[in-house]
Sequence to fold (116 residues):
Amino acid sequence: MRDYNETLAQRVAERLMHIADVEEKLMFSGLVFMVNGKMCIGVSKEGLMLRLDPNALDNLSDKDGWEQMVMGGRPMKGYISVSEDVLNRNDELNFWVKLALDFNPFAKSSKKKKQV
Fold:
């Protein structure tokens, strides 16, 4: 049994099929879609984790079902979670996936671990 919503993961995967460099990784108790070697979208039991432009959050005040991610009591800059409740409609899922994909070219790559 998976620790993430497999139906939602499949719907996200369908929206990323046109992109050449997409890798799926099991991490953070879910499935993460790496786009061009960078974390872009994660699928959990409850919904999506998205990496997007931190400055875009102000423009999302009229959207329901999302919140900034918090880890260790501190907001994670540029990461939000979107509740599964608002992702049932294709237009809503498309909106959130597009936001993450639009930011991906500008996102910093994670540091590669050096081989010792």
